[in-house]
Design a protein that fits this description.
heterodimer, A: mainly alpha, disordered C terminus, B: four-stranded antiparallel beta sheet, 11 helices, globular, disordered N terminus
């Protein structure tokens, strides 16, 4: 295989990985309305924990990190997801109980900065500013994979994981629990007045979404073998936001489209631009600018995203539940609603 | 009065406890101040079981604040609230709702992104499908509960004349339809007590007639209703009992015909002499 193919498979990996990340942020923001600006810090924690539990004992590796248990795939990945969910519980108890939208967003973004500083400076945790490296690629020794053949293999593994996680997420978003999440998103006062424990709902959503963040992060560190703090600057969160806004907030399939457009095409396409002499790193800034411009264009012309949320229609519900609706005299009812008198009532 | 224990036989009974009919909802000495403004200042009243009670009073009398406190959307500074026999003072909104008290909002607050049908489906309390465990490991239970709820929701939508718009997003409804949706959603939650905050506000006469009919039908089903209402014709027609609130206090209670003879009530609310001074 040529180098181009490896590059293509790298793109495929990121397509699926960002699909997973977008699903996690979507349940928090798109479904429950939690503006989680700390999202990428969760991704990083998932990556670090996955890496640190799969690396051997740190003595003699030249790195400093906790755990070092040599845990194999996929258990290391699960541990990364669970650790991230636990972090979500802690942060939810600190922030969600009292704060609402904008203040919550501010506290979350500062929490992510604190986490960033801790990881960046507290070397015994995850090797400080150097980050973790030499994370063993899963199955590489068993399947005798070379550095190159590992790329398509792991892209496929990620695809399968993304498919499973998509299935699980669709089950959640279509369930009454998902409906309650959306009720909290639309108006938490109403949700509470209807007997919904808003904090518990938000907590559940945070836990589920953070698990997805952790898995997505764990996959990244296993794919690339390393992760250091420059890879998860707080701005990375906005790439995931861009994915779900472009794809369509509240729609799981749309997220795959968003991931393709933003993460695969926009972010990685700029890698094809020739380096501009005398301006190292300029490409990355162009990248960030492109995402910003693209986001603005989308919000201006198609704020609902490429593939927006589609509510479930009553006919679908009735069909899926295997029962016919009640015998309501539709003609009478339609006449009722189109009653001119009713529509006059709109002036409040 | 707050230092008198209710069990003390020598104490004078308060107005609230003299009522012979059982009360579904009772509050004593509720107060709530917003930065020094006493919006509610000792409101005390009973809402009799199975009847329709109107809460009337001039603008700024604290009616909506009282509704907010009773439904748990707001915490009171002092006072007590009982739901039947249980004290529920300053309980969380969702806990009070689970005990069977449902409220609507003065300005309709629909769950805009959800369809009309979904708005109703959110309402039933403690659905099995709201547990993550059940969603994955007891799909049968979840499904059966959904069947029952969908069927019931469609029926209620039929009753309230919203069946044709069942698949529309709630934010796309007209003002009148939103008012109906508010009530339909509360009914879907099978309330024991319904708090309606101006269900007829901004609604044309034909629809007022209809909403009045719905409220009477709810009473016939045994639901206790407390409604904030300015339209005295409506109050006259459908309400059994009236509470007059002025400056955050209970001014009087009784039937509307009796209250019309009450000079204080007439001065504070019913009209004739209108005191336009701002409250000092």
């Amino acid at each position: 295989m040529t180098a181009v193919w490896y590059y293509v498979f790298t793109l495929v990996f990121f397509l699926f990985d960002y699909f997973i990340l977008a699903m996690g942020l979507n349940i928090q923001y798109g479904e429950t309305g939690i503006l989680n600006f700390a999202y990428f810090a969760f991704v990083a924690v998932g990556a670090y924990v996955t890496g640190a539990v799969s690396l051997p004992n740190s003595v003699g590796t030249g790195q400093h990190y906790i755990f070092g248990w040599g845990i194999p795939f996929p258990f290391n990945l699960l541990m990364g997801g669970i650790a991230t969910s636990l972090l979500a519980v802690v942060l939810a108890f600190i922030t969600l109980r009292r704060l609402r939208t904008d203040y919550l967003a501010m506290v979350l973004i500062s929490s992510s900065l604190i986490l960033y500083d801790i990881c960046n400076n507290f070397v015994p945790l995850f090797n400080g500013a150097d980050g973790l490296y030499n994370v063993p690629p899963p199955f590489a020794s068993v399947l005798k994979l070379t550095t190159n053949s590992f790329i398509p293999f792991f892209a496929a593994v990620t695809g399968v994981i993304a498919l499973i996680m998509w299935f699980v997420m669709s089950r959640i978003t279509r369930s009454p629990l998902g409906r309650t999440f959306r009720a909290i998103r639309d108006d938490d006062t109403v949700a509470a007045a209807l007997g919904k424990n808003v904090f518990r709902g938000q907590l559940k959503s945070m836990i589920i979404g953070s698990f997805y963040a952790g898995i997505g992060g764990g996959l990244i560190i296993q794919f690339s073998g390393s992760l250091n703090p420059t890879a998860w600057l707080p701005g990375e969160t906005f790439v995931v936001f861009a994915v779900i806004i472009v794809g369509g907030v509240g729609n799981n399939v749309g997220l795959l489209v968003g991931s393709l457009l933003v993460e695969t095409l926009l972010v990685h396409l700029t890698a094809f631009l020739p380096a501009i002499p005398g301006h190292p790193g300029l490409i990355e800034y162009i990248d960030a600018m492109l995402i910003g411009v693209f986001l603005m264009v989308m919000l201006w012309f198609r704020p609902q995203g490429v593939w927006p949320e589609r509510p479930r229609l009553s006919a679908t519900m009735v069909r899926l539940l295997g029962k016919r609706g009640p015998s309501v005299d539709e003609a009478r009812v339609e006449a009722d609603v189109s009653d001119a008198a009713l529509n006059d009532g709109s002036r409040g | 009065m707050s230092d008198v224990t209710p069990t003390d036989p020598t104490s004078e009974p308060t107005i609230a406890t003299t009522s012979t009919t059982t009360s579904a909802l009772r509050c004593e000495g509720l107060t709530k101040a917003f930065q020094g403004v006493h919006a509610v200042n000792g409101a005390t009243f009973d809402v009799p079981q199975g009847q329709i009670t109107a809460l009337i009073g001039p603008n700024g009398a604290g009616k909506t604040t009282v509704v907010n406190i009773l439904s748990g959307s707001m915490k009171c500074d002092s006072g007590t609230e009982y739901l039947g026999e249980d004290e529920v003072t300053n309980m969380e909104s969702f806990e009070i709702a689970r005990l069977g008290l449902m409220r609507t909002f003065q300005l309709s607050r629909e769950l805009g992104g959800l369809t009309v049908l979904e708005n109703l489906l959110v309402a039933p309390k403690l659905q099995p499908g709201e547990s993550l465990f059940n969603v994955f490991f007891r799909p049968g239970t979840v499904r059966r509960a959904e069947q029952v709820n969908v069927e019931r929701a469609l029926e209620i939508l039929g009753t309230y004349g919203l069946y044709a718009v069942r698949d529309d997003r709630a934010r796309e409804l007209s003002g009148g339809q939103k008012k109906l949706l508010e009530i339909a959603r509360a009914v879907m939650a099978s309330p024991r007590i319904l708090l309606l905050d101006e269900p007829m506000a901004g609604v044309n006469p034909a629809l007022i007639e209809r909403i009045g009919g719905y409220i009477l039908a709810l009473k016939a089903q045994g639901v206790t209703v407390l409604m904030v209402e300015h339209n005295l014709n409506v109050v006259e027609k459908i309400c059994d009992h009236v509470i007059v609130l002025a400056e955050g206090r209970t001014l009087a209670t009784g039937r509307l015909s009796e209250l019309r003879a009450n000079k204080e009530v007439v001065r504070a609310y019913l009209g004739e002499v209108i005191d336009a001074r701002p409250p000092s």
